[in-house]
UniProtKB/TrEMBL annotation:
Pfam families attached to this UniProt entry: FAR1 (PF03101), MULE (PF10551), SWIM (PF04434)
Keyword Cytoplasm included in the entry's annotation: no
Region (Disordered): 1-24
One biological process term in Gene Ontology: regulation of DNA-templated transcription
Function, as annotated: Putative transcription activator involved in regulating light control of development.
Identification of the protein by name: Protein FAR1-RELATED SEQUENCE
Entry keyword Protease: no
SWIM-type domain span: 663-711
Subcellular location: Nucleus
Family: Belongs to the FHY3/FAR1 family.
Length: 789
């Protein structure tokens, strides 16, 4: 693609026009933000000559290749006064080819000290024709423009010419940027980074408060957060937690940023405020304030003494994160209960408009679609929704639920959380979605109660969720009696952060204690030995983890049903790369529906395969044929593996009294790996110390070995869980009649019949013969239902 002469690229820029975004008064120049806190890249051409206007990026601009697009953006950046680099690329899920690329300002992100999180970028997308077209663009930067060592481009020459305004006009204009020269009590203070301790008097009480300054040391990140929160409260603004940075060596957190709640532009209430405080971890374990920006680009709201006291309760960094965002007011909310509280809101107003339009459309199409909105003093807060299919799936697969809040792992645009289960094909299945407005105990309690209401009061047997106190307290209150388990990704992250300095020998012993302990006594003995050996009696994190051991140590979780979700892992993210915490507003619904349809298509394919394909038998055992007939293909593979492994074990009877007998089952040639199996001949009940059936719902190799020794030729029916069978979608509706009302029961019946009908359609389209058979079966069913056509 030809760009023309570089010297004339911006020749038509007006260099002497009056800039409405600047004022001059005496010797002081005030530069107003456009928008607030941002430097506007204004390289539009003179209205009289727009012949070269195509050389400014715009949506729809076409290139022969992605390299051409990068070269064009690089030339544009050079003349405007910034540099670029290649950002993310996106690949097709079909063939893995690159489908789109982002080229960003070199100051995008925060990985280096020189980067400022600049949002400027262009994105080009590959069309079917092979051309690359700009489909997204952001022109504004959050830093000064101009490349070092080079003359300023025309865009800065224009800013040098400022319009003088009358004192009267200026006096009626509210300042949008608080100058660093404005100090307390009207006295000037040095510009730049504050490097001396300053104490100032605050409020009517006249108490003193220490202002942030470079070099200030804290014992922990929590202490730094509480300090900045207290300072902000007295100064008249609110804060939230910004980005964190991790070590490339061990993944531990090396620095954190605490920012003004109005930082960024993700939501209407945010104005790109640049005020922040950054702390950095020292080798001693303390944290030092190494970067600080005091000035805000918005008015501060000083609070009265009473307001200050009412909101001064300290909040620990690990427990609660405030969003500091505006809420969106609506006049009418359907399907939702009202909860009156005063809370922060992490959801921007535009999201509510988008979602409510989508919800109303879906309700017209799906009678089982459910949504609810948490309301605080007339303002919308958290949002929950689930379509009819998700509600029906919960009646079958809602026994083990993962509450996925992985958006909290990184900087996010949208606090999108999901309820996910495991279906009879071992696939993730969606059980509901939510946007979390506020990460408080009360908000999570509302969300869990709403989920229960949508799922007809179907209490899960187990829930996997983050360790955070607010979430765990809410689960305990909303799901009493439900087994709780911590998310393993969070445990691993905490281990890297708190045990990073320990030796490899310690890590080996630590993992052996966690994953190889067979009894509670073994675990406690090994744990205490490690604590004493390495002098960790005062390690606060290890103390807490020991107290919470029943929620994360495999030994304590084996006897609880988790549908086989690995203890040292997790199920696959339901939305994967389709949808995440950085998904922009305009793409959210389309990506959501695209992924949802793809997941459900994968489930339909597995259903089809289960009825049309047969797994190979590898033994002549009747139990293998029985389970092949009943189980889905994926679950049968799990059973078949256990059956084949059982032949590598020896079973020795160690006890017998009446109908009760006990066996010691050990691996051939391995005296260490052994388990105890108890068998009752009167009812064919069996239990094993490995507790695989209790955890996964499939019999283990040890029990199968005992069955083989006792010539049990058929698996007892109570060991074939209906949720793992091919017919898992049937059989639960009739059982639900006693726990749901007539309206909700009708919804479940509609989805059950619809899914069954879809299977007839899919099978009938494979050939003309199968079509005739499927049609005849449906007609015969119609005759029995007395609705003959």
């Amino acid at each position: 693609m030809a760009f023309g002469s570089g010297s004339s690229l911006f020749s038509n820029l007006r260099s002497t026009e009056t800039d409405p975004n600047t004022e001059e008064c005496g010797k002081t120049v005030i530069v107003k933000a456009y928008p607030l806190g941002m430097v506007r890249v204004d390289n539009r051409y003179n209205g009289e000559d727009e012949g070269d206007s195509g050389l400014e990026p715009y949506i729809g601009l076409e290139f022969d290749s992605a390299d051409d697009a990068r070269e064009f953006y690089s030339v544009f950046a050079t003349h405007v006064g910034f540099k670029i680099r290649t950002g993310q690329l996106y690949r097709s899920r079909t063939d893995g080819s690159v489908s789109s690329r982002r080229f960003v300002c070199s100051k995008e992100g925060f990985q280096l000290n020189s980067r400022t999180g600049c949002p400027a970028f262009i994105r080009v997308q590959r069309r079917d024709s092979g051309k690359w077209v700009i489909d997204q663009i952001h022109m504004e930067h959050n830093h000064e423009l101009g490349l070092e060592g080079e003359s300023l481009p025309p865009v800065f020459q224009r800013r040098s010419s400022m319009a003088l305004k009358s004192p009267t006009e200026m006096s009626h204009r509210r300042p949008k940027i608080k100058l660093l020269e404005e100090a307390d009590d009207g006295h000037p203070c040095p510009s730049g980074v504050i490097n001396v301790k300053r104490i100032r008097r605050v409020g009517d009480e006249g108490h003193l408060i220490l202002e942030p300054h470079a070099g200030l040391v804290f014992n922990s990140a929590d202490e730094a957060y509480q300090f900045y929160q207290s300072y902000a409260l007295n100064a008249g603004f609110r804060i939230r937690i910004g980005q964190l940075f991790r070590s490339k060596n061990d993944g531990s957190i090396t620095s954190r940023r605490f920012v003004c709640s109005k930082e960024g532009f993700q939501h209407p209430a945010r104005v790109g405020c640049g005020a922040f405080m950054r702390i950095k971890r020292q080798e001693s374990g303390t944290w030092i304030l190494d970067r600080y920006q005091k000035d805000h680009n918005h008015n501060l709201e000083l609070q009265t003494g009473m307001d200050r006291k009412s909101s001064a309760a300290p909040k620990r960094l690990i427990d609660e994160v405030h969003g500091g965002l505006d809420s969106f007011s609506v006049a009418k909310v359907t399907n939702g209960g009202l909860i009156k509280r005063s809370q922060e809101n992490n959801i921007g107003g535009d999201w509510y408009t988008l979602l409510f339009d989508y919800f109303q459309t879906r309700q017209a199409e799906d009678t089982g679609f459910f949504y609810s909105v948490e309301v605080d003093n007339g303002n919308c807060m958290s949002v929950f929704w689930a379509d009819g299919r998700s509600r029906f799936s919960c009646s079958q697969f809602g026994d083990a639920v993962v509450f996925d809040t992985s958006y909290r792992q990184s900087f996010y645009l949208v606090p999108f959380a999901t309820f996910v289960g495991v279906n009879h094909h071992k696939q993730p299945v969606l059980l509901g979605c939510a946007l979390i407005a506020n990460e408080s105990k009360e908000s999570f309690i509302w969300l869990f109660h709403t989920w229960l209401r949508a799922m007809s009061g179907c209490h899960p047997k187990s829930v996997i969720a983050d360790q955070d106190l607010a979430i765990q307290q809410a689960i305990a209150q909303a799901f009493p009696g439900t087994h709780r388990r911590f998310s393993m990704w969070q445990i691993k992250a905490k281990e890297r952060e708190n045990l990073r300095s320990m030796s490899n020998e310690f890590k080996h012993e630590y993992e052996k204690c966690i994953y190889q302990s067979q009894t509670a006594v073994d675990f406690s003995t090994m744990w205490n030995a490690i604590i004493n050996k390495y002098g960790l009696k005062h390690n606060a994190w290890l103390k807490v983890m020991y107290e919470k051991r029943e929620s994360w140590v495999p030994l304590y979780l084996r006897g609880k049903f988790f549908a086989g979700i690995p203890i040292n892992g997790s199920i696959e993210s339901f939305f994967g790369a389709f949808l995440n915490a950085q998904t922009p507003l305009e793409e959210f619904i389309s990506r959501y529906e695209q992924c949802l349809e793809q997941r459900r298509e994968e489930e339909r394919k597995e259903d089809f395969n289960c009825y049309n394909l047969r797994a190979y038998l590898q033994t002549k055992e009747p139990v293998e044929e029985q389970c092949r007939r009943l189980y889905t293909l994926m679950v049968f593979k799990v059973f078949q593996k256990e059956l084949l492994q059982c032949y590598s074990y020896l079973g020795i009877k160690t006890y017998e009294e009446g109908t009760i007998s006990r066996y010691s089952v050990r691996r051939c040639g391995n005296e260490v790996e052994k388990h105890a199996v108890t068998f009752c001949a009167s009812n064919l009940n069996a239990s094993c110390s490995c507790q695989m059936f209790e955890f996964e719902g499939v019999l283990c190799r040890h029990i199968l070995r005992v069955f083989n020794l006792l010539d049990v030729r058929e698996i007892p029916s109570h060991y074939i869980l209906h949720r793992w069978t091919k017919n898992a979608e049937y059989g639960t509706v009739s059982n639900a009649e006693s726990v749901v009302n007539s309206s909700e029961l009708k919804t479940l019946v509609v989805w059950s019949l619809r899914e069954a009908a879809c299977k007839y359609v899919e099978a009938g389209t494979t050939s003309l013969e199968k079509y005739k058979l499927a049609y005849e079966i449906m007609r015969e069913g119609g005759r029995k239902l007395c609705w003959q056509r």
